[in-house]
Amino acid sequence: MIAPLRWSQFSRQRPSPIVLVLGALVATGLGVALVRYASGIGAISNLNNSYSWGLWISLDLLCGVALGAGAFTMAAVVSIFDLEEFRPILRPAILTGFLGYLMVITALLVDLGRPERIWHMMIYQNGHSVLLEVGICVMLYTTVLAFEFLPVLLQRTSWDKPRRILHAITLPLVILGVVLSTLHQSSLGSLYLIMPEKLHPLWYSPLLPAFFFLTAVAVGLAMVIVESSASSRAFHRGLEVHLLQRLAKAIPYVLGLYVVIKLADLAASGELALLIPTDLPSGLFWLELVVGAAVPIVLFSRRSIRESQKGLLIGAAFVIGGVVLNRFNVSLLAQSHLGGQGYLPSLGELAISFGIISAGILAFAFIATFFPLFEAEPTSGGRAPTLAASTLLDK
Asked: Is residue 127's pLDDT more than 90?
């Protein structure tokens, strides 16, 4: 059992400059959120009737849920497909997913007109709304992620029985988590099926749920690569390149399937002529396709790139950039205006978004510092363990 936490472990730490900056962003976002609750959303936001939703939904919800997909992907790889060699990168992936979903919920609480009534969907249900399915699945999946990660926190306690119970139900939890994540990853695409006249034809398709799911799987693998690379630098720990390159090898297949289905769908709907780059939507579509699919497919198809720490990080960054652009295209950039009003996120919206993201980074750093987040690899075949050795907090 890991030794329990003591106050002296906190008191000896002095925050580094980056922690102070992140803390300032969190405090600023919290202050703006309090203004929003006191004076209404109009006091800090530029939202209008021209768009379905604003920055919080595009960035914090759509992108946040997609970027948290590494949790269900790695949980399925380790627990369902029984690939135990990937276990050293499972805990950080689950934590990243859990914090990502908490950030999504936090953004929703700010965005909702009556956030104290968020639970009403469970009582006053609209069975015809995709949002009901999304809300229930997100709520349940966040709970599943909490249970999946709880054993890491319990290692700092003497509570052996709860740890044994959680260990016994790990596989059912993982299966439930994969099902729930699959449902709501795809259902987020279903939200936009009701706006065929508003969403540009290059993005509107009955296959939007499938597109959202495939890109979520690809970006989930990419996020595991980025998180592992970032944590290895921040905490001065070894990087599991031999594992990450196997994840990278799978990304071209997922993205390739997405591109083939996407282009076939455009051909079937008679929209291929829209691919001629003559306007902003077609330019955005090509940017998304090249940056988020073509470049990563080429990069990760090369063994030399997959075996390079820098190559892995660059390729994963392209995947993440492409999926983020896709979510913004669908939810904001590729939508027709209603009433001719434009929309530019306000400083208040940016402050809240950056504050939420900063809080997630600080939470990850705190847990990685004081809890056994990184599991040591078995030292077989001469490979060294990759247990964390230091933290973001300078003594």
From this structure: no
- Are residues 134 and 103 part of one domain? yes
CB-CB contact of 146 with 100 (8 Å): no
Q: Return the SS3 of 11.
A: helix
- Residue 24 sits in the same domain as residue 106: no
pLDDT at 359: 96
The two tokens of residue 264 are 């076939």
Domain that residue 320 falls in: 47-343
- Nearest CA to 5 out of 195, 155, 116, 108 is that of 155
What b/e readout covers 260-289, taking b as 16+ CB neighbours within 10 angstroms? eebeebbeeeeeeebeeeeeebbebbeebb
- Classify residue 63 by its DSSP letter: I
Q: Residue 395: what pLDDT? A: 35
Identify the CA nearest to 344 among candidates 32, 36, 47, 41: 47
With a CB cutoff of 8 Å and minimum separation 6, the contacts of 44 are 32, 35, 36, 346, 348, 349, 352
Whether the model clears a pTM of 0.85, i.e. scores above it, the answer is: yes
The answer to whether 229 touches 313, Cβ cutoff 8 Å, is yes
For 161-279, strand residue ranges (E) read none
What's the confidence (pLDDT) of residue 2?
56
Q: Is the pLDDT of residue 261 over 90?
A: yes
Domain count, the chain: 2
Together in a domain, 357 and 215: no
CATH number of domain containing 220? 1.20.1630.10
Does 108 share its domain with 244?
A: yes
| pLDDT, tens digit (0-9, with 9 covering 90-100), for 150-194 | 988 888 777 888 888 988 898 899 999 999 998 989 999 999 998
Whether 42 and 122 map to the same domain: the answer is no
pLDDT of residue 11: 55
Query: Does 13 score more than 90 pLDDT?
Result: no
Q: Which two tokens stand for residue 286?
A: 């090509």
